[in-house]
Design the sequence.
């Protein structure tokens, strides 16, 4: 009898161990969103991630995936960086662009900024102690670096790539990105130098005109 009771109790304990606790709803939504991202269903993924964050605002991975979604969508709306850089630099002064292209470019800018905002929120949570083993901070710094470059902010872009190198797996990609940053700085400096030369040449011509005008008056 005692053996039978012991076996029954053992069976109950085994069954109790096999019964898994229901997964939190925010995690269920997160997993569903991740599957949707793999199928490039970004709008549906975004909705699920927003709901997931409403249930758990401390979910680091949800912020990261939401940042990814915004980045993916910004790249799909317009031809990668070309029009984006033009809009950040010249705004609505791009006379050759159609109104539809300008509206799309403005939407791209908004999506990119929302993506960056979510990456920064994830980093802030990790800094305050939140942890997710699937998230590498280097990835976030690396993606932020490209976001800053898209805004023509070379200084912050360089800082983000350096942070990526200091933090983990994307350090070699970040090293390549830093080479690109050096190229941009060189190009930017050349443009500034050319502009300065043009300005000096214009000032010389104006000065010569004044001298010539004075000579005629005499």
Sequence:
């Amino acid at each position: 009898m005692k053996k039978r009771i012991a076996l029954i109790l053992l069976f109950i304990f085994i069954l109790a161990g096999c019964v898994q606790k229901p997964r939190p709803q925010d995690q269920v939504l997160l997993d569903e969103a991740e599957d949707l991202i793999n199928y490039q269903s970004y709008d549906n993924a975004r909705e699920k991630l927003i709901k997931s964050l409403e249930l758990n605002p401390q979910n680091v991975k949800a912020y990261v995936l939401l940042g990814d979604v915004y980045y993916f969508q910004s790249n799909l709306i317009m031809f990668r960086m070309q029009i984006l850089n033009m809009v950040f630099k010249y705004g609505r002064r791009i006379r050759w662009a159609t109104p539809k292209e300008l509206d799309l470019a403005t939407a791209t800018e908004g999506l990119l900024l929302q993506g960056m905002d979510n990456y920064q929120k994830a980093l802030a949570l990790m800094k305050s102690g939140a942890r997710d083993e699937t998230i590498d901070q280097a990835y976030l710094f690396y993606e932020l670096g490209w976001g800053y470059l898209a805004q023509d902010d070379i200084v912050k872009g360089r800082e983000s790539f350096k942070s990526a190198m200091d933090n983990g797996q994307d350090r070699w990609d970040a090293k390549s990105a830093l080479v690109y940053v050096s190229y941009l700085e060189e190009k930017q400096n050349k443009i500034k130098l050319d502009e300065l030369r043009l300005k000096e040449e214009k000032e010389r011509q104006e000065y010569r005109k004044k001298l010539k005008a004075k000579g005629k008056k005499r």
Remarks:
- The longest helix spans residues 171-217.
- The domain at 22-135 is CATH 1.25.40.10 (Serine Threonine Protein Phosphatase 5, Tetratricopeptide repeat).
- The two ends are 132 Å apart (CA to CA).
